Amino acid sequence: MQNARNPAETFQAAVRSFNARDWAQAEALCRQLLAANSQHVDALHMLSHVLNATDRLQEAFAVMREAVALRPADPILWLNLGEFYRKAGQFGDAVECQLHALAIKEDIPEAHHNLSLAYRGLDQHEHALSAARRAVELWPDYAEAHLNLGDLLRDEDRLHEALAAYQRALQARPDWIDAHFELGGVWLKLGEPRNAVAHCRRILQLDPASVAARDNMRYALTEIGRIEEARAAVEGAAASGSPSRMRGVETPAEGVPTVQPINWVFIDSLDWDYDVASPLTTPMGGSQSALCYLARALSGRGHSVTTLTGTTSPRVISGVRCLSNRTITRDIASPDNTMIVVLNGPSNAALQLRKFLQRPATLILWTQHAHDQPAVWDLLDPVHAAAWDRVVCISDWQRLMYHRCLQVPESKLDVLRNAISPTFERMFQDAEELAAAKSAALRLAYASTPFRGLDVLASCFPEIRRRHPSCRLDVFSSMQVYHQSGEQDKHQSLYDQCRATEGIDYRGSVSQTQLAAELRGVHLLAYPNTFAETSCIAVMEALAAGALVVTSDLGALPETCAGWGKLVPRMSAEHPREQFERDFVEAVASALGDVQADRPAAMSERYRQVEAINAACTWSVRAAEWEAAAAQWLHARASGPARLV
pTM for the complete prediction? Predict the structure, then answer.
């Protein structure tokens, strides 16, 4: 009963309503608090935002000023009051408020960003530029601040600096249409229409109705002589009937859905010390990398996202709250629209979580394990399987195996696939750039853990090199991705074999950033897989890097290759290792021969492959798929019988 709540409980209920954008309920609860205590500053603060969100700006001003008067040492109140002024066109007052906030606490990046925008409104360009630089200095992943900095630099015709700023914005917020739009515009100003085409094309993949992108695409294609494609762009613009959208400072990103934001909570029970920034700097396994990239992509689409991992340094990165899994509290599931996603189990965790949370919650098991892994065997128990709302697999093959071997009902299983690291996105503007990146010498790579087929490759490579003496092999492999030290890694003799084999350079595990830079020059991923993959991000990323993939047809690899790889029949009783090795050598040697016989044709085919992977296998695409799935899950929960905790 609402009247029985104490003030703290009432305020928390108001927060939940506010986060769910239930403005009427949030306002009612704030006013209830203020009726009991007219000086409840947090209630005043929230009420002002509710009034602003419901287009009652003058009332919002009055309430926010009251909050500031009661708590004048709170920089956030000054910051928000300044934003109200700026949105009302009162730029001088906005500047004063942001300066008040910064006088109290100088290192607030949002205050510097808002100050820059206010100075822009006053046409005080140098002050705006200085504030923008300070904002990105304090928060290197602040996408909106990088975009604003790019605008300021572009206005001064410092186009290469603007280009770098827009690229940083896109890196911080992948597939942000505004950043793509500005990048395309700068490339056109620099006389590089080929580069502009790539950004226009991506905008149209995200928002086919964007006439402004079609206009730029038409111009860029005309400039490079692709007249028929330019005509098609014009016809597409005419058919859409939608007005062009010119980006303004306040315009939200296109492609962001209008569905209610969801409270996403990702839990990894392992004690590995990582957060969502780790994959770009530290060797990591595919499952943990996937969690990090998906969390950031969902946050970029406007959702509330929390990760609970073994991190020892809780912090907020790109809007994601990165917390420790050692201190899970019940309030993680307080909003009704919470999705709790448990990575890789254990598969008996749902019952424990429901008992701990003491409230209904949507629990998702996101499993990247094959059906034969002990971590998922508890799904054989119908009680444990029923405790999960959904079991999310990452391939059709994995889903089939979970149904056949673990008896999980098909109706409970979903498939939401993995994707490539952002560092592998859009690596080449065209086939010419791809061809230039590939070394003249034939370069091969292995980029998976050692127990998945490195022993086979080490055995095969001498014969491959005998047939193609100029080829060499880089091996990016170790157990470091599973947080095993060199002393714990039992594959040292295999690494020594690689080091002792002519033409093989054993490199060990590297970060995603370094791996992308290395694979950019690689012709072929040599992956004689002997361990059933449920997906294989390494293969996806090699395809995105323009490498031909030669692997086995084991597990989900045929799905992952999607017709772009060369598949060798898997090792089996009917196809023993000796035959598998001979077939693999033949497939690799033949593929290298094709490159040497007609390099332009090979590079053109690889670029078509790159475009296909970028269109279908990025985390921004996956985030939209998770979002759509979550909407269905929430609808099913709302329309179905209540679940007892």
Answer: 0.61
Cα separation, 297 vs 117, in Å, equals 26
321 close to 612: Cβ distance less than 8 angstroms: no
CATH 3.40.50.720 describes domain 422-617: no
| Residues 52/58/63/68 CA torsion (nearest 10 deg) | 100
Task: Report pLDDT for 461.
Answer: 97
Q: Strands, DSSP E only, in 62-145?
A: none
For residue 215, the model assigns a pLDDT of 65
Place of tokens 């490079």: 224
Two tokens, residue 225 = 């002589």
643/389 Cα distance (integer angstroms): 10
In angstroms, the CA 408 to CA 388 distance is 11
Q: Please state the separation of Cα 208 from the chain's center in Å.
A: 21
CA distance 94 to 126: 17
Closest CA to 243 of 207, 201, 211, 203: 211
Burial of 302 (0-12, 13-18, 19+ CB in 10 A): middle
The residues, any chain, with a CB within 8 Å of residue 20's CB and separated by 6 or more, are: 260, 261, 335, 336, 337
Other beta carbons within 10 angstroms of residue 373's beta carbon come to 14
Own/partner long-range contacts of 77-84 (Cβ < 8 Å, ≥24 apart): 77/41, 77/45, 78/104, 79/108, 79/110, 79/111, 79/114, 80/45, 80/48, 80/49, 82/111, 82/114, 82/115, 82/118, 83/114, 84/48, 84/52, 84/57, 84/60
Q: HSE (CB half, 13 Å, CA atoms) of 159?
A: 12
Q: Which two tokens stand for residue 264?
A: 């996403």
**pLDDT number for residue 227:** 58
pLDDT digits (tens, 9 = 90+) for 205-256: 887 766 666 666 767 667 666 655 555 544 443 344 333 333 432 333 333 3
Q: Which CATH architecture has domain 158-255?
A: Alpha Horseshoe (1.25)
Q: Cα–Cα distance between 453 and 447 in angstroms, integer?
A: 10
pLDDT of res. 641: 45
Residue in this structure with the two tokens 């009302």, named with its chain if needed: 88
CA dist., res. 419 & res. 618, Å (int): 5
Strands 320-324 and 315-317: antiparallel
Spatial separation of the C-alpha atoms in residues 420 and 594, rounded to whole Å: 27
Q: What is the DSSP letter of 480?
A: G
Task: Measure the CA–CA gap between 198 and 521, rounded to whole angstroms.
Answer: 21
Q: CA 491, CA 493: separation in Å to the nearest integer?
A: 6
In the predicted model, residues of the chain with pLDDT beneath 70 are: 1-5, 209-216, 218, 220-221, 223-259, 639-645
Whether omega before 346 lies within 30 degrees of 0, making that bond cis, reads yes
Domain residues of the chain, as ranges?
Answer: 158-255, 263-419+627-639, 422-617
Is it true that 158-255 and 422-617 share their CATH fold? no
Rounded-to-integer distance, Cα 79 and Cα 67, Å: 12
CATH fold group of domain 263-419+627-639: Rossmann fold (3.40.50)
Calpha distance 132→369 (Å, rounded): 45
Residue 232 is predicted with a pLDDT of: 55
Place of tokens 């498939």: 415
Alpha-carbon 566 to chain mean position? 28
